[in-house]
Write the C-alpha cells for this entry.
Amino acid sequence: MPIVTIQVTREGTTPGAASLTAEEKAALIKGSSRLLLDVLGKPLESTFVVIEEVDTDNWGWGGLPVQDFRRRRVAKTG
C-alpha cells in the first residue's frame, strides 16, 4: 500500500499565512494520489497521503537554520 509523505513549511503559500489551507491540503492529496495512479497504476483506494507541516525553526538549509540562511542570502544579493 503506497504511502506518500509531503513535508511543507508552516509558512503557507500567501504572505501572512501560518500554514496550508484545507483546500491546498486537499489539492495535494488529490494530486499526489492521482500521480501514483497515473505513473504506477496504484489505486486511489490504497494510497495514503500524510501532510506534515514543519515549523521554520525545525529545519535548515546550507548548514544554517533556514531563517539565518535566508537573511544571509538577502544580505549578499541586496
